[in-house]
């Protein structure tokens, strides 16, 4: 069990947690000094994800419009060609 925990943490669990605590304290002090609060960071991350999400679906929507516009021509032509080839047999 201890080996798995050590591998997961990348070192002795207590030492890793202590390092994380110290680094979190330093980064937190720097962020507070810059007047950046945790909620600002979380909101910024949420906005970033939403912008990517919206851009992605807008691209999919635009691609769908291209496919639909092409299908309006391609599918009837394909259907006519299939009907004509079936009639020739």
Please tell me about this protein's structure.
- The chain is mainly alpha-helical and 89 residues long.
- It folds into two domains: 1-36; 37-89.
- It has helices at 2-9, 13-33, 38-88.
What characteristics describe this protein?
89 residues
Apparent shape: elongated
The N- and C-terminal alpha carbons lie at a distance of: 72 Å
**Main beta-sheet strand count, sense and barrel state:** none
List the domain count as a whole number: 2
Q: Give the uncertain stretches in residue-range form.
A: none
Radius of gyration, taken over Cα atoms and rounded to an integer in Å: 29 Å
Number of strands: 0
SSE pattern = HHH
Number of helices: 3
What is the compact description of this entry?
The protein is mainly alpha-helical. Helix content is 90%, strand content 0%.
Q: What layout of secondary structure does this protein have?
A:
Layout (H helix, E strand, L loop, with lengths): L1 H8 L3 H21 L4 H51 L1
């Amino acid at each position: 069990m201890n080996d798995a925990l050590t591998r997961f943490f990348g070192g002795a669990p207590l030492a890793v947690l202590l390092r994380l605590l110290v680094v979190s304290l330093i980064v937190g002090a720097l962020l507070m000094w810059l007047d950046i609060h945790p909620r600002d960071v979380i909101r910024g991350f949420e906005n970033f994800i939403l912008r990517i999400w919206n851009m992605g679906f807008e691209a999919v929507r635009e691609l769908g419009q291209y496919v639909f516009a092409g299908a309006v021509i391609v599918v009837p032509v394909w259907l006519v060609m299939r009907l004509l080839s079936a009639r020739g047999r």
